[in-house]
Specification:
6-stranded mixed sheet, Ribosomal Protein S8, Chain: A, domain 1, homodimer, 3-stranded antiparallel sheet, 9 helices, alpha/beta, 262 residues
Chain lengths: 262, 262
């Protein structure tokens, strides 16, 4: 949750029909080296999609000031929101807050509101120099509460800065979600084809051409018995268009299955 | 494996001391919607790091021609290699090969070498219009074999185009790996601190400052009994510098543990 004093963004009304976009910037050498397998991209993607925010791009960059600042400025300019994960802990390799301050051209310092939040969890003797680094906020930032461990993330402009540890990131996203502006939800329906992708490609192309107002995706998978199969996923913001396309997919599959040798 | 006729890249010699960089472009609406959780970034990161190629950036974009072409041209210009995953299947939403052709400004057509490879797996009647789309290659591309299902990926300039299905992507990466130019490997050692990250932050910062030739990362985790702990990861291409920094980390931890109340 944002501080009540927040003036950073409109409250979370459903602006029907409007498309709200976001990017995610994952910051961390450990992801690019393969040492840590990212678990945040999938969670952020699923959460934003479910809320009515289109995740439009993800980038992963090193713990490198120039790269982070460049990506922050490119992505915050291109999308309605930019979420970042990683690099806001208590150690010297946590440079995200400083990079955000640099990207916005504002100073950064220990924020008494953040210290107050952290006092809920830490004893006075635990609030050492390292932990107080986590209370440093770019000027103008609003705090993002997290129920998991009380150390706040922050929000400045259209950029929401979250931790890299999945449980903490999830608590921060949950904290900030009610404050986000959302658009009309992208609806989706998945139809299991029980046919191979290569056997339905031409017919599916024709169908997609006849339904230009929906997006039709085709995703191969192996079923429980390791037989190749396909999920056809239809996506649209319009319930009616979605249902019409799903019906067309089912009719197409019915025709094709009937035409197959038994 | 590349075709023997390949003239695209130097063979895989260890150019000691040299740094070879790569980017990964993940293409697919299903990743950005959260429907599919990416499993390729971690595998590519780990494989390239192990070979001596630094994965320096990852981007995830939609199945959208303009976005793909823009990302391909930005990333292939910025790094030694660009790997892509996704969008080379038999259906209308598989547009990666066309986008790569467009990014390079070359025509694209069915490649008889690819058709020959696919004949190893598919019966003549299975090589329909949809499956033959998977044999379309930008002019000048070399084929990347895959042992998993015989449908090739391809390599053009410094761009290596792979499937999105993890098992197929892994086979393609394995196929192309021996042909890649590699640099001196980044070595890493992980030391379990048995202390909280916030308790070692100041000392670790000083240590990192005294070892500017290595990178020192700090990664919090919860141990088997859910107690907060920290892995300190030291990385360097120089074995001697790495060992010196690891010894310094262990000495630091020893001093700090001795100073703690029992």
């Amino acid at each position: 949750m944002l501080d009540e004093a927040s003036g950073g963004a409109a409250s979370g009304a459903d602006m029907s029909g409007e498309v709200v976009t976001a990017a995610l910037l994952v910051i961390g050498d450990e992801i690019l080296s393969g040492r840590t397998k990212d678990k945040n991209i999938g969670h952020v993607a699923e959460t934003l999609t479910g809320m009515g925010i289109d995740l439009s791009e993800v980038r992963v960059v090193h713990d490198d000031e120039a790269r982070i600042v460049e990506a922050v400025n490119a992505l915050r300019g291109a999308y309605d929101y930019l979420f970042t994960t990683g690099g806001i802990g208590p150690t010297h390799d946590d440079i995200t807050a400083d990079c955000i301050a640099k990207a916005f051209g504002v100073p950064i310092d220990v924020d008494p509101r953040a210290v107050a939040m952290m006092r809920e969890r830490f004893k006075p003797e635990e609030l050492n120099e390292a932990r107080l680094r986590m209370a440093r906020m770019p000027q103008g930032a609003e705090l993002v509460h997290n129920s998991f461990n009380k150390v706040p993330g922050f929000w400045i402009g259209n950029v929401i800065v979250m931790a890299g540890v999945p449980a903490i990131m999830q608590a921060m996203l949950e904290g900030v979600a009610p404050q986000l502006r959302v658009g009309r939800k992208m609806l989706s329906r998945s139809v299991r084809a029980d046919m191979k992708e290569g056997d339905i490609g031409s017919e599916l192309r024709a169908l997609a051409g006849e339904h230009p107002d929906v997006s039709v995706g085709s995703y191969p998978f192996w079923d429980e018995t390791r037989i190749p199969n396909t999920n056809i996923v239809v996506r649209s913001r319009e319930e009616g268009a979605l249902e019409a396309a799903v019906a067309a997919v089912e009719a197409m599959l019915g025709r094709m299955r009937a035409g197959r040798p038994a």
